[in-house]
């Protein structure tokens, strides 16, 4: 395991902070897209937004092998379904939102409105149900609430990124850290353009958390020869955690399998070999649940050999997701290194 | 009356023939040619005298718009015929099993009459009396004396629906089975008629879809073939405006206008498109409401992910007691739904530039793909 300190500029850390702080629940990813687009444009041949809101960033040789690298912009949250006469908001979950985690949290809307999640009084508080919760934005009537929030508006956990050396803590590192890794790789590939022979499209996708909905159409449009997703993965290194092989700080995790795909074995071998050759800290990931954008990508059109670079993360889907900068930089190193290879690998 | 005929037609998922026949007859009467695809979707389009958009793949001057409604309904399929002559069955689509005991059904195209039976209450254990029997403990009684007599009338694989006549109550409510989504089919036929009669500048592609109730299966295939830029799904949705429901649990309210959706279990519509529908309703003073729960899915869940992605929205009429024998839909909701969908479609060529924030990019992606191919 390499513990080498990877240098990350203050500008790049500031970009990660802005990505994490942005309010981008599934279906309402505009604030994230508005950060990613200008960060990507200087290093891209072209940047486009498709019908669903996926941001497609093209770089490399337009006549080369087509490679799709997906990282999702959206995060879990809640969506307002009702505003009562007293100005309290009822809501439905967007993505895998745990009632236990949600209760008492501060939630932010894209326009800056902040609310707190409360619950109807009940003698049995052991199983808090989302149907009994509400968001209190401090309004005293429906009319006052409606000045700030409309039905269909969505909110995310509030709060920014904490950085201490290698340690990262914040909401939405799933998958803004993946977006950031993709942007770092894009920038580095731009600097080393002569050694990139493929037509690489970075897809910053929408609606992953509600069912991997954005990546399929992006893959259909780009018709790639190889697909990669950059996403987070839960670790098994906390007290009495699930039995998961991935640990924080042990490098980028190369996925073998999750509920959405079995990674192409040839591509996975290429990722491992590339990591070994370049002294990049890496580990193997087997996840018995969950899915990533690589799921729909590998089933697009006639099938796409696909793999996943995973970023180890603790406290997934909470306001306190914890990750390591060095793991993210290992992912950047591996992504850049593998994209510079001919991407030749054995068939499945 | 066309809506009555559509409601009473039998069209359990995968067996939409009767509905298809009515729709094709109506399309013929409008002078529209149609095709039925491999899954049983009926596809047609009302060409505009103002010119037709370009061929698939080419850059489009006008958006290609697809409007859909599903033909199929929830129902039952006969799974076994007992020696005694009673029929065991499985539900097709989401049916509340608490509704079933004692309901009359029609079986197969010959509409054999049956009634759903269960163990009489005085023969049940005390513990079973507080719970509704599940479908597996129920049977359909067609009055046959034994298996061989039953087999003369029905066979395994026959489908069945609730036996329910369409009625109009107080000239303001429609009552019947399968109003989900025969009301949508009815609206779509009216839209095509208006598009022709009023010479809309919009070319309207239409798909009457199959197998929605068992997992949105027909619509994706139909949308793949049409390759639209925009899709509008006409639906009937739940309406929990009944006693004992908290306001925040009421998905829609009967008579308060067609419902727009900001999210359901299978789809998050494009915000710009939904805002545009709201603006259209407000401009034309058409009442509308929000669907305030996020359960369930419509054909939009399949359509929006087709090919490179489709801007999709759904417009739903509130329906009490849907997926049962006697759903109730408001006549004015239907009229307002038709008015809103029509205004949106008629004005689409003008409004397209306002929606084109993402759609032009979609055209670019499409173009790039066409160049590559």
In terms of structural class, how would the helical and strand content of chain A be classed? alpha+beta
- Beta-strand percent range of chain A: 25-35%
How many DSSP helices of chain A? 9
Please trace the helix and strand order of chain B, writing H or E for each element. Answer: HHEEEEEEEEHEEEHEHEEHEHEEHH
- Rg for CA atoms of chain A: 20 Å
Range of helix content of chain A:
25-40%
What is the radius of gyration of chain B? 22 Å
On the 0 to 100 scale, the average pLDDT of chain B is 90
Q: Biggest interface between protein chains, with counts per chain?
A: A-B, 32 and 33 residues
* Residue windows where pLDDT falls under 50 for at least 5 positions of chain A: 1-5
- What structural category characterises the helix and strand content of chain B? alpha+beta
List the main descriptive attributes of the protein structure presented here.
heterodimer, A: 348 residues, alpha+beta, eight-stranded mixed sheet, six-stranded antiparallel sheet, 9 helices, 17 strands, globular, disordered N terminus, B: 373 residues, eleven-stranded mixed sheet, 23% strand
Task: Give structural notes.
The complex is a heterodimer of chains A (348) and B (373). Residues 1-5 of chain A have low confidence and may be disordered. Chain A contains nine helices and 17 strands. The two termini of chain A are 29 Å apart. Chain A has helices spanning 10-21, 30-40, 99-102, 142-148, 173-191, 215-222, 265-277, 294-298, 325-340; strands at 46-49, 55-60, 66-72, 77-83, 89-94, 106-109, 114-119, 133-136, 154-157, 162-164, 167-170, 199-205, 226-234, 252-257, 282-286, 306-313, 321-324. The longest helix of chain A has 19 residues, at 173-191. Chain B has 373 residues and is an alpha+beta fold. Chain B has helices at 2-8, 17-29, 147-153, 179-197, 217-226, 271-283, 300-303, 331-346, 348-372; strands at residues 34-36, 42-46, 65-70, 75-81, 87-92, 104-107, 112-117, 139-141, 159-162, 167-169, 173-176, 204-209, 230-238, 259-260, 289-290, 311-320, 327-330. In chain B, strands 1, 2, 3, 10, 11, 12, 13, 14, 15, 16 and 17 form an eleven-stranded mixed β-sheet that branches. In chain B, strands 5-4-9-6-7-8 form a six-stranded antiparallel β-sheet. Chain B is globular, with a radius of gyration of 22 Å. Mean pLDDT of chain B is 90; it is low at 55-59. At the A-B interface, strand 4, strand 5 and helix 6 of A face helix 9 of B.
């Amino acid at each position: 395991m390499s513990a080498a300190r990877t240098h990350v500029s203050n500008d790049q850390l500031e970009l990660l902070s802005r990505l994490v702080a942005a309010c981008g629940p599934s279906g309402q990813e505009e604030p994230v897209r508005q950060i990613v687009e200008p960060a990507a444009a200087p290093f891209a041949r072209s940047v486009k937004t498709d019908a669903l809101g996926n941001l497609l960033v093209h770089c490399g040789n337009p006549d080369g092998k087509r490679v799709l690298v997906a990282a999702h912009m959206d995060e879990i949250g809640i969506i307002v379904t009702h505003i009562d006469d007293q100005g309290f908001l009822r809501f439905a979950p967007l993505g895998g939102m745990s009632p236990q985690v949600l209760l008492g949290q501060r939630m932010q809307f894209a326009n800056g409105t902040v609310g707190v999640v409360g619950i109807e009084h009940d003698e049995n508080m052991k199983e808090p149900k989302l149907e009994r919760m509400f968001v209190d934005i401090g309004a005293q009537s429906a009319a006052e609430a409606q000045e700030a929030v409309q039905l269909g508006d969505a909110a995310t956990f509030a709060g920014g990124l904490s950085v201490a050396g290698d340690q990262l803590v914040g909401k939405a590192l799933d998958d803004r850290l993946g977006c950031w890794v993709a942007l770092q790789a894009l920038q580095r590939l731009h600097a080393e353009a002569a050694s990139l022979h493929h037509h690489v499209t970075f897809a910053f996708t929408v609606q992953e958390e509600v069912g991997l909905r954005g990546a399929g159409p992006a893959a259909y449009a780009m018709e790639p020869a190889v697909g990669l997703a950059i996403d987070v993965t839960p670790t098994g290194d906390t007290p009495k955690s699930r039995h998961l092989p991935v640990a924080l700080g042990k490098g980028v995790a190369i996925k073998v399998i999750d509920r959405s795909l079995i990674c192409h074995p040839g591509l996975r071998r290429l990722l491992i070999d590339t990591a070994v050759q370049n002294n990049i800290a890496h580990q193997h990931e087997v996840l018995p649940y969950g899915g990533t954008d690589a799921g729909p990508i590998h089933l697009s059109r006639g099938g796409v050999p696909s793999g996943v670079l995973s970023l180890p993360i603790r406290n997934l889907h909470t306001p306190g997701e914890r990750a390591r900068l060095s793991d993210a930089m290992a992912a950047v190193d591996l992504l850049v290194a593998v994209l510079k290879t001919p991407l030749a690998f054995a068939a499945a | 009356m066309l809506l009555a005929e559509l409601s009473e037609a039998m069209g359990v998922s995968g067996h939409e023939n009767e509905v298809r026949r009515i729709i094709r007859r109506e399309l013929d009467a409008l002078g529209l040619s149609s095709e039925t695809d491999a899954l049983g979707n009926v596809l047609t389009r009302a060409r505009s005298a103002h010119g037709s958009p370009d061929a698939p793949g080419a850059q489009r001057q006008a958006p290609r718009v697809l409007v859909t409604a599903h033909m199929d309904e929830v129902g039952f399929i006969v799974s076994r015929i007992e020696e005694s002559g009673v029929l065991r069955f499985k539900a097709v689509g989401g049916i509340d099993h608490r509704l079933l005991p004692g309901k009359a059904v029609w079986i197969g195209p010959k509409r054999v009459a049956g009634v759903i039976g269960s163990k009489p209450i005085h023969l049940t254990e005390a513990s079973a009396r507080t719970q509704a029997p599940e479908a597996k403990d129920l049977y359909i009684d067609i009055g046959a004396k034994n298996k061989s007599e039953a087999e003369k009338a029905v066979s395994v694989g026959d489908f069945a629906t609730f036996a329910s006549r369409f009625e109009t109550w107080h000239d303001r409510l429609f009552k019947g089975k399968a109003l989900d989504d025969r009301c949508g089919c009815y609206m779509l036929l009216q839209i095509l008629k208006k598009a022709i009669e009023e010479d809309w500048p919009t070319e309207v592609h239409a798909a009457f879809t199959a197998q929605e109730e068992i997992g949105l299966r027909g619509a994706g295939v139909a949308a793949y073939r049409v390759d639209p830029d925009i899709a509008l799904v006409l639906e009937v949705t739940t309406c929990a405006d009944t006693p004992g429901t908290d306001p925040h649990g009421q998905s829609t309210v009967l008579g308060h206008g067609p419902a727009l959706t900001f999210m359901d279990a299978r789809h998050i519509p494009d915000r710009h498109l939904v805002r545009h529908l709201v603006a259209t309703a407000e401009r034309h003073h058409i009442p509308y409401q929000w669907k305030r729960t996020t359960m369930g899915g419509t054909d939009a869940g399949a359509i929006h992910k087709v090919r490179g992605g489709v801007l999709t929205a759904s417009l739903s009429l509130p329906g009490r007691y849907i997926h049962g024998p006697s759903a109730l839909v408001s006549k004015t909701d239907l009229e307002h739904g038709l008015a809103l969908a029509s205004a949106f479609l008629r004005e689409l060529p003008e409004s397209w530039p306002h929606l084109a924030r993402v759609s032009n990019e979609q055209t670019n992606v499409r173009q790039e793909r066409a160049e590559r191919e």
